[in-house]
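Q: What structure does this chain adopt?
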Amino acid sequence: MSSTTVKQDYKERIVPALTDKFSYTTPMQVPKLKKIVINQGLGEATQDKKIIETALNELTAITGQKAVATLSRKDISNFKVRKKMPIGVMVTLRRDKMYEFLERLVRVALPRIRDFKGIESKLDGRGNYTLGITEQIIFPEINIDAINKLMGMNITFVTSANTDEEGYALLKEFGLPFKNAKN
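A:
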């Protein structure tokens, strides 16, 4: 299955299902997945500059799109952070790359988590969802032998939904394996 089939699945199956469930009057009211943002906060990068480089390469391999370093906004002496110092990496995926990543996450990466029982179903109040992953090795693109340090990441699904209920229904239809189904 390619990303176009996930997109087709959205148009052919998910839009009608959500239209029935929430009784929308037009297909334009149906919430969409706008973007997926993958973010890694790397506080220990203040001591070791190679951590950022490694994280950039790994995130680029996972997503298929070039990752960028995030810079600190101000000096924080307690954490030995200077302004404009790289302290994390992130990627924003849209359109086909977003659907492709979503499919790989649901079909390949999440099932590889040991003792996986589903993901939490707590949204942010505006229909968006952030999934925290503790290890980057669940992605098949990562060579386990080349790993120096396990790093987690946050994956945020930004939707056009107005409520958590609509956002939850959209993400559930996309196949995200939530623990306690709210149907």
